[in-house]
Amino acid sequence: MADRITLSRNYKPSHYKLSLKDLDFQAWTYQGTTTSSIALNAEELKIINSELLDSNSQGPRVLQSTACYQNGDTVTISFNEELVVARSYKLVIEYKGLLNAQSIGFYRAQYKALSEPPASVARGENGSPCIVCTQFQPIGARRAFPCFDEPNMKATFSLDIELPADQTAVSNMPVATTTTTTTTTEETTTEGRKRVSFETTPVMSTYLLAWAVGDLKYIETWTAHEYRGSKITVRFYATAGLEQQGRFAIEEAAKVMDFFSKTFDIEYPLAKMDLVAIPEFSFGAMENWGLITGKTNILIFDEKTSASTKKELISSIVSHEVAHQWFGNLVTMDWWDELWLNEGFATWAGNYAVNHLHPDWNIWERFMGEGMEGALIRDAMRSSHPILADVPDARNVHQVFDQISYQKSCAVLNMLANHMGVDTFLSGVSSYLKQNRHGNATAEHLWRALAEASGDDIVANIKPWIEKTGHPVLTVTHEAGQLILRQSRFLAVDDMKPEEDETVWWIPLGLRSFAEKEAPIINLSLSEKEMAMTAPDQLYLFNGSGTGFYRVEYPRDHLTKLGQKQDKLSVVEKLTILNSASALAFSGSGSSVALLGFMQAFADETSPQVWLRMLRDFSRLGQRFNNDAEIFRSIQALTRSVIGRMVQSLGWEPAAGESHLRAELRRSILEAAFLCESPSVKEAALQKNMMYAADPDKLTIDPSLLYLVWAAGAKASPADVVPTLIDQWQQSVSTESRVRFVRAMCIVQDPDVLRRLVLPFIYGTTPAGRVLRPTEMRPAIIMLAKQWPARRLQWEHVKTHWDAVVAKMGTSSSEGVGRVLDVCLSACTDAAEAEDIDAFFAEKNTEGFAMTLAKVKDGILNSLKEIIATRDALVLFVRLVGVRPRHGLNQLVGIWVAKVGDAVARRVDDVFVVVVVVVVRGLDDAVNGALDGVVAPAREEVAGVDDNGVGNGRGVDKLARRRANLQAAAVILKEQRDGAIVLVFAGAELADFIFKDVCLDLWVMEQSEGIVRGVDEAVKMRLVKPEAHGDGPHDLDVQLLAHFEKGHHFLAEPIHLALCRPVVPKVFVRLAANLEALLEVRGPLLRPLYRRRRRRSSSAASAILGRRRRRRRRRNDELLAALAKIPAVGGGVGQTQRFLVGGRLGEKSGGARKDGGDGGGRDGVAREVDEAGGLEAVQDGAGGGGALGGRAVEEEGKVNEL
């Protein structure tokens, strides 16, 4: 590691006495006096005077400073005498500081008052009231007072503050005294002020000191247990009117304090605990000892406006910050490179506490799906860093406050705790805390304590996890009855260099066999590059507990089997499988196509966490291609199809007594559907928008969904609605509603509105009160970065107004600029963007955010490689499986279609068709029976018998005729050049024809129990109630249903996937049309897989949908013209033709014209388009078949346009 830039260790502080006065709320300045002892940190502070008091045995004396030299964030004070070693001195410094507006150091924070505050309260530029408060982590204390601002330069602190008498001051410790003061100058005498002095703190680091002043009110509660003879008071402070909304937060804090005091066997050491809601705050919250501060909209819970999921967020944040009272405050890391000892432990202990208090919340499942997964994704980048980070300069430490220091370190601790046993782990942790109480520690102190508790060599196992970048992938292969396990470093792109794969990790395998449903997890581990073990007889799973911080790559057939055994998998196991499958797919060692197919097997999942996991993958995939219009629309359609059933199931209204997890899933599902342009969701949101405008109180949806309601209006009329949203944002006193207004306007994609209204609102500085403050910008930047072209327009705005952006975030706040760049550029995906970023920053000083830029460019490189590797296969897949059918069969088929698409896209250039052939038992007999019924009335003519009963030689054998039709269709198939998927329910005869005469390659699916059930479900769903689809019963329906009722399954043999190249989708449907014509029934097995009743749109929705209708009509006309050019293959038999449109089956709906043919040999084409522009049918009457060809089809509702 590089040499650290630190203050001299020739002296160290023991105590600070800090006195603040003359808080000027007009000039935003203050004065202070601090006593400490000689080169120390000071930034944006003006040193007025300094002197050194020498208390020696001969009596006290004063040493006046001879020079004071300030350089950047340090000040050096010189004296005319040499200081004596091992003697105590008192350094007294008078200085003047600034109350800045950058949320760092001692700063001012504006808010919307619920009631008129006292006249003495500070006012911002636009007249909004302010509180003044502090945020010192990591190096902000030097902006508030001269100090030794390094974590291992601990001291005690005593603080007194002069403030207006009608305001409140809070700090780490309880108030010691309050006195009335009068300030007299040459010009004025100021009365009505007071001086509040606080008790002396324990020994602690400078970054843990904190205070706040303003119109603050509080509520309080107490711990259940007594400490040193009394219960501890827990208070919640907020600006007047918000204090009651902190009730849940302080109740959680009190419970967690009791829990940790018992768990760690160390009592909470202070006399009180306060939580303070800060209106402008750079982070979520801060663990100042005895005075936890946090962003107001995160800590409060409003029964009217807060989402039901908010309590879990509050509990997690409060538990994390209370855990810091032990991890970070009582025992502090020695230097910033050991930040993980603070943050990793606080994250782990916070989750542990939430799980104890709320086991039904399944917090560890959420951690697996979100926190741990986010860390795995970040850690797979080359720009990642070890948990034990290299931080030579504390001014850059903000760059390692990231997923590695928080989430990866938590995951590694959790992996270690699971291996040791949680009780043993906690015993070692308790020893670590006791041995280093009030001091600084390193990882070595922790390893010794854990080794003593467990008796194991913890260091050898865990050191690579802490000191090396990255994590492994465990690759599993089958060889001669054995499992071969190999570990290698996992990278986000599959281009490992040998020198990058030298680390050997200790990997707890967590092997579970499915021989028994509740089979125990076998505690094996891998500590070498490769090992062999006997293969289990049954299905198996690695990392069964989900605590291992690594990926698992199974053989493809084994992964498929795991996907088919969902009933035997826990939620944790499903997340483990999906997380690894996703990472491998996006890295290029797997395939995003295979991932999409695999995820379709989980489409009936009920766990919110599993769904949220899959939604993140769809979102990630969409962001990869959101500037590629051709594929992005298809990905949107695919997403809509997968989540369609959940949209219907969850709806907009909360169910009585539902869990907050289900409410969160509803928000995520509806948001995904809205962003994917779901017509039904957009229409519903517009209707609710009108309801809200008429009477907000009558809209009973979850408050977290309001932003979608407002966004619907903004997308419908952006130029009119966005200014209104800005007005409502400005007027709102609800911090949560303000965030929702911002998110709603950022969904707008109108370039003019974005440039003229939205971007100036986010990044501008004037007019005050009508632009976002720096701490409010993040949600807006994220929303724009996720969408195209908003992402490009946002980056252009940042470049054009770079100096203004830097000024807004703070001229010396590289941390703030880095956060803007991180979220603004993290979704960039192409080479042009990477080149543009490099060019823009080529001549700029990027020291404060160099790691952020490296991460951004790493992400772009990874995305670019993934796009190049997967685009063609993905295009193919979304054409093949554009819509998820509503039955279990096709969910399973989707997995195999993905495999076929992935395999073939790697070896051929032109597109193709995959025919999924389901051979239905008894279908041949049913077809023959149906044909007999159709042909019987005309048997004599067909058989070639004249009026005298003499054969005329013109008879055609039924079977020969059927074969002729199928062969004619095959000729057309071989002449076309496009691609699609066709699902064919076939008898053995038709299947044999496809396999022998049409397909180029063939795959066979395993005939599992799930597939058998899926076929039964798929077929029966079209037979039990055919009248529900507008049809009456048919002979084919009756015969097949009777077959099923005898107890037989429909599936006759394994499902085959036949590859046919090159063809067009319409032609394969003509094959289906030929079959249907031969049967002369209305195709109960060939109906559209989706249908719904047509609904009349509201006037607002109709206006918005108008353009979509016109586009559909044009597309339908083009398709009809193409269809008309395809020769009929029916030998004069009229056909009702159903065909694929963008991967979906379409069918005629309502009022078909009956002039399909003139009976004289011409082909007549009749068509009709419904009022919304959705193509519903083509009726084609071939020569001599006009009457049959003109058969009307009952109204079935239009194809579901997702």
What does this structure look like?
Residues 1144-1202 are annotated as: Disordered. With 1202 residues, the chain is of the alpha+beta class. Among the domains are: 1-214, tricorn interacting facor f3 domain (Immunoglobulin-like, Sandwich); 218-328, Neutral Protease Domain 2 (Neutral Protease, domain 2, Orthogonal Bundle), CATH 1.10.390. Helix content is 41%, strand content 19%. Strands 3-6-5-4-7-2-1-10-13-12 form a ten-stranded mixed sheet, with no helix packed on it. A five-stranded mixed sheet has the order 15-16-17-19-18. A four-stranded antiparallel sheet has the order 8-9-14-11, with no helix packed on it. A hairpin with a 2-residue loop joins strand 4 and strand 5. Helix 5 runs parallel beside helix 13, helix 20 crosses helix 22 and helix 28 packs antiparallel against helix 33 (1035-1045).
Give a count of the beta strands, DSSP E runs of length 2 or more: 38
**Main pleated sheet:** 10 strands, mixed
As a whole number of angstroms, the C-alpha radius of gyration is 35 Å
CATH topology of one domain: Immunoglobulin-like
User: Under the CATH scheme, which class of one domain?
Assistant: Mainly Beta
- CA-based shape: globular
Range of strand content: 15-25%
Briefly note the structural class of the backbone.
alpha+beta
First and last CA, distance: 55 Å
Q: Going by CATH, what is the homologous superfamily of one domain?
A: tricorn interacting facor f3 domain
Provide the low-confidence segments as ranges. 882-892, 905-911, 929-956, 961-980, 1022-1037, 1061-1105, 1118-1202
Reported CATH architecture of one domain = Sandwich
Total helical elements = 36
Q: Return the average pLDDT rounded to an integer.
A: 77
Report the helical percentage. Answer: 40-55%
Strand order of the largest sheet: 3-6-5-4-7-2-1-10-13-12
Protein name: Aminopeptidase 2, mitochondrial
Family: Belongs to the peptidase M1 family.
GO molecular function, one term: metalloaminopeptidase activity
Pfam family, one: Peptidase_M1
